[in-house]
Each structure stands twice: as C-alpha cells, then as structure tokens.
Amino acid sequence: MTVQRLSRAVGVVLLLLNVSSISYAQRYGDGRWEYLGQAHADGRVDHDKIRVGKSAAFRAIQFEIKGGAIEFRRVVVHFENGKDQDIQVRERIFAGGRTSAIDLPGNRRKIRSVEFWYGSVGSGSRRPTLNLWGSR
User: Are 66 and 97 members of one domain?
Assistant: First the structure.
C-alpha cells in the first residue's frame, strides 16, 4: 500500500469516527439527557402516566419510541408546584424515532409526572415502548 493510499484510509477512518461522535452527541446530548421512565402502548387507544422519581429540574423533555409506531393524541406534564402544561405532540413517531426536544416553560421545572394519551399504530401483537428523557 502506498503512502498516499494509507493516508486516505486514515483520513476516512478519522472522518467516520468524527461523524459517529457528532451523531452520538446529538442523540444523547453529551450526557445531558437523563432517562426518566417508560410506558407501553397496549392497544389502538391507551392512556399512561410516567411518574418521575427525580427531584432534579429539567428544561426539556423528549420521547423515544421502540418496538412499533405510536400516534400521540394528548400529552400533559404535571409539575411539582401543582401546575400542568399541555404539550402539542399530535404526530406519529415510528420505531427507533424520537421527538425533537420539547422545551418546558421557565428556566427549569421539577416534573412530578407526564401523562400520555396515545395508541399503537400497525404494530400487530407487539407493544411499542415509549421512553421519556429529560434535559437539565
């Protein structure tokens, strides 16, 4: 192998490593995203509540879907101070997908729970899983 081919191969490897680290940072926010809980869509229409057992305050939340598609109908975030916020997420998220970051009002808010009205879409006997993430 010539020096020119070797330097090209090293350059390609470094480029791939850089792209994968950027992708990881975008997906996981350099460690800023924390797992807060999960729920399973049991049918075409379902209602679940994820209780957040952390006393930390969060700036944003995000939903990750695994095992099948979920169509959201309504989402309500319940805060520790007793206030609630309706979140407009009227969309279908497919398996392996995530919503974009959903900003919460104010600087940081302590979340008591997040309530979901949703349904599985065309997943047959599989139960899609919704993972809730929070960013400080």
Answer: yes
CATH assignment of the domain containing 111: 2.60.120.1380
For 10, 52, 70, 131, 135, the CA distances from 95, given in Å and listed in that order, are: 35, 23, 8, 11, 22
Please check whether residues 66 and 129 belong to one and the same domain: yes
Contact yes or no for 65/110 (Cβ under 8 A): no
Rounded to 5 degrees, what are φ and ψ at 109? -130, 140
Neighbouring-strand partners of residue 84: 78
Q: pLDDT tens across 55-102, in order?
A: 889 999 999 999 999 999 999 999 999 999 999 887 889 999 999 999
- In order of 6, 79, 110, the CA distances from 82 in angstroms are 62, 6, 10
Coil, helix or strand for 53? Answer: coil
